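Aim 2, interim progress. The first record below pairs a target sequence with its structure tokens.
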Amino acid sequence: MGWTIHHPNGLLYHDPGQAFQGYTLVSMSGGKDAFLIDMAGRVCHRWHREEGIAYGFLLENGNLLSRTRASGGFIPPSDQPTGILELDWDSNILWQYWDPYVHHDFERLPDGNTLMVLYDLMPQDIARRVRGGRGSLEEPMYGEVVREVDEAGATVQEWSMWQPLEPEQDAICPLEERHQWLHQNALNLTPDGDLLVSFRQIDTVGIVSRETGQYTWKWGPGEISHQHHPTFLPNGRVLMFDNGPHRGGATYSRVLEVEPESGRIAWQYTGSPLISFYSYHISGAERQPNGNTLICEGAPGRLFEVTPDGEVVWEYVNPHRIPEGAPTGSGGPNSVFRGHRYAPDHPALAGRDLTPLD
């Protein structure tokens, strides 16, 4: 969005007749709080942890599954506590898993196990073969693994995200550093329970079979630029936020709905003018039950909802700020990694007091 230090924040616009009504979960990259806001932008619940709540989402039991640390371009291991926490409604820790290589995204499985993304130091002989990127061929390079752990924290299974790829073909963007091959920034599940992943460094989204560990679909190079948050839609398409910082030409972001079989872009949203909608990093998009799309323009902390025709029917700029000195990456102190909306009758909200706090 166009930026000015005098821009308003909080709720900017709400069309009750067209917006999907509910509560939106917001947390700052590098912050210690998560906020559940109503359609008027009022805080109806707040979670707080000194370890940090950089990103989270609600489980059906009302608990918040969250990551503790900002997911910027740091090189592991982290010297800050990094892990996944399950918090109850009062911010008490019910479950925790700590590993300095944990980053970005995670998922809770129906059986109670948890999937998470972790950095994985690659062998130097393979790192040298990876094409693209800036920097020395001799510097350490990290790929990713997806790890499944049980409720006791024991590893059940791991899938390497980099081993099935081709170093000479799956090249790093020439404008990015070489210390990460993939920079996996998203982890979701397909309807069949396989892994839907996103690799920022190589402009690629894909599906990894949990049974074989191999890719069954890969798409993106030449079509998208440093994308985030692919999710499967009920119509079989994949929704994603295409950030666009290195696409060439005008710099702008867009939200895409892609048919996996053909690679055809079936729907997209862009700003008007194009540059009015842009986030260099983080960000996401979530399809609502009424067909609208909730978009998180992460770097400037803007969340908004659009109809299938691209009309903005709800718009909010996060007024909350991370503590001074906390990492913000290339965003601002109100940056939001990703946003989620929950209908009033969502199981996570059953019996909860959602009276606005302010």
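The second target in this work package is listed in the same format:
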Amino acid sequence: MVKVIATKEAPAAVGTYSQAISANGMLFVSGQLGLNPQTGAFAGEDFKSQAEQSLKNIGAILKSEGLTFANVVKVSVFLDNINDFAALNEVYAKYFVEPYPARSAVAVKSLPKGGLVEIEVIAAY
């Protein structure tokens, strides 16, 4: 059974997709930009502010399903600039502990709304 997940504690989707989908014991969280859910604006103009907010948004979606970052098994990170990789690891370490989930991080040409980072996760119930 597929279930659409939506919480007001994370930004509404900026396109034709769901915040997350639950299916077969897994939660698939769509890419989260560093947008403040109350204002719809970026949490800051710098990478760390946006990465931190992106992970807060993911945390809110996980929490809405009774999950935590410990349930995350896969993380995909899209960076506007690969030079932000070290800053990503610094922020990431505040949310994830060993055993770390599988992760990929790639630089992309651009992100929606001019964001600096977008993060998506897959979690297991």
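The longest strand covers residues 26-33. This observation will shape the mutagenesis plan for the next reporting period.
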